Amino acid sequence: MSAAPPPPSTAVAPWPAAFRSGLRNLADPARAPQMQAYMKSAMPFLGVSAVPLRRFCRAFFRDFSWETTGAWQANVLALWRGAEFREERYAAIELTGVRAARAYQTLAALPLYEEMIVTGAWWDYVDIIAGHRLWAILVNEGDPMKRAMLGWSTDPDTWKRRSAILCQLKGKAGTDLDLLYACIEPSIESKEFFLRKAIGWALREYAKTDAAEVLRYVARNEARLSGLSRREALKNVGTA
User: Fold this and answer.
1) CB of 137 within 8 A of CB of 129?
2) 164 shares a domain with 80
3) Domain-ending residue, one of 83, 104, 125
4) In this structure, what DSSP letter does residue 109 have?
5) pLDDT surpasses 80 at 3
6) By C-alpha distance, which of 129, 134, 154 is closest to 144?
7) Burial class of residue 215, CB neighbours in 10 A (0-12, 13-18, 19+)
8) Distance between CA atoms of 199 and 185, rounded to whole angstroms?
9) pLDDT of res. 1
10) What is the number of structural domains in the chain?
11) Per-residue pLDDT tens digits for 41-72
């Protein structure tokens, strides 16, 4: 793992307790067991659904600002590391995406996201970080971030590999195909479901921009791609 982000005690105002209290006021405890079962989560849920959670986060975080990336990261980690319920970790991810944090989507934030990806280790956390936050760093940092994602693509950690594959989901015409294919390559013959699914998803998203290129790629690699990856890749452009 990269250099550790700052400890959560750095520059954290005493707001997390008030935030957690407000979140509990939105909870429907009767829904919590079903939510936990659906997500196959060891961490319990409060029972707050996505829409009210995002609405509450927007209102609560609206006036937040930070003088440094370290102060912002410390606030994120105050929620992430101290979470007792899964919704608190969702809120930490929301905090990474507020307007005031846009200036901090640089390589300096990569260790923060790496910690969240590795310790979260499940698709509901990982995919939004990979598809949105890592993409923002890629846009801002270019070649250094590409090198970082190439490193992640061969990492023993499945979720870092998945993140490298998914980091250009929003790329559209700006997708770096060399990077996409290079990040897929180490996992193209993997039997891991979440890597197979990620490969198909990344290709399917790019097919919205250039279906012919995805068809060519799948044809060239038909013997190596899993059936799941092929089906996902061609879902909207043909049959696997």
Assistant:
1) no
2) no
3) 104
4) G
5) no
6) 134
7) middle
8) 9
9) 52
10) 2
11) 999 999 999 999 999 999 999 999 999 999 99
Q: Does residue 92 sit in the same domain as residue 127?
A: no
Q: Three-state DSSP class for 38?
A: helix
Secondary structure of residue 17 in the 3-state scheme: helix
Q: What is the distance, to the nearest Å, from the Cα of residue 123 to the centroid of all Cα atoms in its chain?
A: 8
Residues 109 and 193 in one domain: yes
Are 171 and 126 within one domain?
A: yes
Last residue of a domain, one of 82, 104, 126: 104
What whole-number distance in Å separates Cα of residue 132 and Cα of residue 230? Answer: 24
82 and 172 fall within a common domain: no
Q: Which two tokens stand for residue 104?
A: 């901090």
The Cα angle at residue 52 between residues 48 and 53, in degrees rounded to 5? 65
**Domain with 20 in it:** 1-104
Quote the tokens at residue 24: 């509990």
Listed residue (125, 159, 107, 156) closest to 39, CA to CA: 125
